[in-house]
Model the fold of this input.
Amino acid sequence: MEKPENSILKRDITKIKADAIVNAANSSLLGGGGVDGAIHRAAGPQLLEECKEIRNTKLPEGLPTGQVAITKAYNLPAKYVIHTVGPIYNKDDISLLKDCYLNSLKLAEENNCQSINFPAISTGIYGVPIDISAKTVKEVLDNFKSDIIKEIGLVLFSENDYIIYKKYFD
Ligand code: AR6
Done:
């Protein structure tokens, strides 16, 4: 088991070529705003079709907070999209944010992904402060080793979020 290489990136996650990118979805899995909207737009309508199929078969009640589901990535440069639902700040248990990252990593391993890229889950519409996100993600990755995953990218969209992540990780 080895520690994967972590990188902090300031990018649009829909442009990243990797085995897996993670989507900060909601429990409906049927799309939304923020990074979820961007991923669905860039992947094309087949992504929504596959998500609907998952709802109709495996997840009739939707995807619970902290849990994960995998789809193909269609028109995106990535191979898979791992969908997860982050906690809403001041409503849900914030420790569920760790579950999002850990369960995504586990599912990536099960699908033989060597590289995975995460957005800052829950730090947009769901309101988690970026420094709490950075601290939580660092704790998860500091303790994570894998035989399969070699590269983990943490993808920030704003300059400010990028600077704060850099501060925690350097
Ligand atoms: N690439 C990378 N990061 C991005 C991108 C992008 N293209 N676009 C936004 N971000 P959010 P949440 C960043 O709101 O807080 C949706 O409607 C953004 O700056 O997308 O988990 C879902 O359907 C922020 O730092 O997700 C849910 O209903 C981070 O992605 C709800 O929002 C997450 O912001 C989920 O809220």
User: Anything to note?
Assistant: Residues 12-14, 24-26, 32-36, 38, 86, 119-126, 155, 157-158, 161 surround AR6 (CB under 6 Å). DSSP finds five helices and six strands in the chain.
